[in-house]
Amino acid sequence: MISLDGRKIYKLISNFINLIFPERCFGCRIKGEVFCKSCQGKIITIKKPYCKICKFPYTESLTYGGCSECVSRYPVFKKLITAGIYNGILKKLIHLFKYHGKKQLAEPFGKLMAEQWTKEKERVDYIVPVPIHSKRLKERGYNPADLLLNEFNKYFAYDKLNILIRVRPTFPQYELNRKERELNIKGAFEINQDTEGLLKNKSILLIDDIFTSGITANEISRILLEAKAKEIYVLTLARTLLKS
Fold it and tell me: Taking Cα atoms as reference points, which of 112, 129, 140 lies closest to residue 208?
């Protein structure tokens, strides 16, 4: 563990390096920030009308405020909150963050998520990251959802629970159709039994990087509700426009 003095030295060295080799935006390569304000302005946000549950954008009126899929397959989580659509600049930088080790993007990403959550004016007791399998964690060296949660939580200081375990590896959801995604994720998660009692009557904020079809979020929410949680909110950095 790095001591307090060690952290100060590390920060001084980092600041010195940044002075000589200033950070550049991963979007436009301008000096100053890893994700500049100009590039952040290019994020496509989801505007009304949209499904009140899964935030899928619609141009027509919605039944009971929800899209046809959420009405017919009613999700067990309360609603999704997301910073933008998984497209353009956001898609490019998420790819760098997840697959090319650009972990420094977690800081501006976490801030974007915090800004969206603040608008909701909801209250939760705990925040929980979506886990990745131990094999993938070893290969990648980090869990993107966990990094996002840590940066997001600098603005709120919620109690964090690492109670979910990914008991088997899964295929990327975007490569599969709906039936395959349901089979892919079924039984992939479990709760640490030692902490299960903490969830009773508690509101949970589940943190992930991308919301695709909602099957992963729904499966985890189901498990948390079975452990007596009161309600589940889902917060992601981005949402795809995939619906089936």
Answer: 129
Residue from 39, 23, 237, 216 nearest 151 by CA: 237
Q: Rounded to an integer, what distance in angstroms lies between the CA atom of residue 234 and that of residue 238?
A: 11
Q: What tokens does 84 get?
A: 């933008």
pLDDT 10s digits, 152-197: 999 999 999 999 999 988 877 767 788 888 888 889 999 987 777 8
Question: Is-contact 214 75, C-beta < 8 A?
Answer: yes
CATH for the 37-239 domain, from 3.40.50, 1.20.58, 3.10.450, 3.30.70: 3.40.50
- Burial status of residue 20 (CB atoms within 10 A of its CB: 0-12, 13-18, 19 or more): exposed
Say what percent of the chain tops pLDDT 70: 86
Q: Is 71 exposed, middle or buried (0-12, 13-18, 19+ CB in 10 A)?
A: middle
Q: CA 134 to CA 22: how far, in whole Å?
A: 34
Residue of 66 and 53 predicted with greater confidence:
53
